[in-house]
Amino acid sequence: MSQTVNPDRLFEAFPAPSYRGNQEQALRDIRDAFAAGNDVVLVRAPTGSGKSLLARAVAGCARTVEDADPSEATGAYYTTPQVSQLDDVAADDLLADLNVIRGKSNYTCILPEERNTPVNQAPCVRERGYDCSVKHRCPYFSDRAIASNREIAAMTLAYFMQTAGSEVFRKRDVVVIDEAHGLAEWAEMYATIQLGPRTVPFWDDLRVPQIDGIERAVRYAENLEQTCTRRKDDLLSQESLSPREVRERDRLQELIGELDWFVSDYRDPQSPTTWLVDQSEPHAGDTGDGTDDDTDEARGGPLTIKPMNPEKYLAHTVWDRGNKFALLSATILNKAAFCRQVGLDPEAVALVDVGHTFPVENRPLYDVTQGKMTYEHRDETTPDIARTIVRLMQRHPDEKGLIHAHSYDIQERLAELLCDFGVGDRIRVHDRDGRDADLEEWKASDDPDVFLSVKMEEALDLKGDLCRWQVLCKAPYLNTGDSRVAHRLEEGQWAWYYRTALRTIIQACGRVVRAPDDHGATYLADSSLLDLFDRARTDTPDWFSAQVDRMTRPDLPAFDPQAARAGSGTGRSTNGETNARRRGRSGSRPHRSGRSSNSATSSSSSSNSSRSSSSPLADVWETDGS
């Protein structure tokens, strides 16, 4: 048998013409870690380290077809949970040999009469035995053929996991996972089963009992799987299907796989997975007394079946897919804890730390805390944070700012208060469906607008003047009402709880400083953030501890909304009434936060707006079978 990954090729596989920062030393450390016999190397590389270039170098060390026996795995996979990260890879000339493949819904059929039809709804999937005359030119199948036959195939983590067991995307020698810090959480999310009116095509036809425990959930899942199989077989027996029926068939196939995995995993005495089940109240239309019409059995509502630490699932979808692995992230904060979560043996895992090359004075933290933003204190603290934001707008009159609101409730409260203070013409907001378009519009604007964001702490590149300051409005603790979180805290896993929040903060701080000569300020408005730094101190990287240790309380100007508007552009409505202000009056959210010379704004939302392929967060799990 020939040797697997060849770490000596790391330097020749590095795609850039020269090294910057600590890249050369990082390659030496990665080479030594693989040469020492480690199967997995964690590469903890902060923002600006050039992780994608390091990832390409590791992928280039994979065993080649020329060096391998026919039965041996060759080549490499590059995968990332973030769609935007994959977009960046596809657009980078230095990474041109990473052959990108996406889910079918991202491609459009090229048949003349189907130009607006996604490939996952094209005639080839609607009609049985359809012989496509242009399949050899189909963008999806062309990309798939190229990616499956070239040395490096690049895809989202969702697509990678979904193709486990595929004859097309078989085991390879090397797997590189970028932004790997949330691997366990992504796996838990992907393996979670949602059973309700939005996910089960015939939900209204079902008789859903009250589920009083996991055993009852397993029995119900077995019965539901049989029902789904019968309905899917009925659809497969038809000569042709409508687009709606295609979507139902594909969803049924996914659901059958999800239910089968849950039942088999639960029945496996060797599986380490713990399963939890949550059930909502019955939806409107159920019998008024809460019982079934034909039996005395109580009716139940939608179900969520959740795995915790799905090691077996990760073994099938990730660890069985390669011989050697490189996992890259700025925020793998605790090696042992990370390995436990994802089912790795720490003894077979090496950690490579890449030093931060950005001057600490270019990435300052400032204490502007106004109190706690816990639910019971939010009403009191939010107005003070809004006033602080106005003062920060005064401090940065000509610079764009980003507010991490943490939730849509906090975002709405802040938008209303800022409009009431009279600074609404410098404020932009987004909603769930229009977040991508609103973000891109704000980034493209030359005005020093302030963007009230929700869940944009990761996968956002705001280099240079795209953003010079940001505010963290709330410590990003996980919701203790979530059954998985509650279960872990009942077991005393408080270190995990604090570490997860710290990871989000570090990710957020990296949004506005993207290069050694870049600079951006981060302001902390929730006093719980300071407490978190103390609680998670032992898991804090040295380079971030340096930021925390240098933190000061700035001398802000006195509250003056008129001065906060000083940097506002002139391309506004004449009465200064923005979407944020209108939303504050009506309580409704606009599709867009952008503004034109009149007070109206156009909405360009569509049925696919919430799954835009350009989104930092959307469409991560929107994949289709290979």
Task: Describe, in plain words, how this protein is organized in 3D.
The structure is a single chain. The protein has 626 residues and is an alpha/beta fold. The protein has three domains: 7-97 and 151-184 and 312-353, 3-Layer(aba) Sandwich (Rossmann fold); 197-284, no CATH class; 360-565, 3-Layer(aba) Sandwich (Rossmann fold), CATH 3.40.50.300. It is built from 21 helices and 16 strands. The strands form three sheets. A seven-stranded parallel sheet has the order 3-4-2-5-9-1-10, with helices on both faces. Helix 9 runs antiparallel to helix 10, helix 13 (378-395) packs across helix 14 and helix 14 (408-420) packs across helix 21. It starts with 9 loop residues before the first helix and ends in a 40-residue tail after the last helix. Residues 570-578 and 581-626 have low confidence and may be disordered.
Short description:
The protein is of the alpha/beta class and 626 residues long. The chain is built from 21 helices and 16 strands. It has a 7-stranded parallel beta sheet, sandwiched between helices. Strands 11-16-15-12-14-13 form a 6-stranded parallel beta sheet, with helices on both faces. It has a 3-stranded antiparallel beta sheet with strand order 6-8-7.
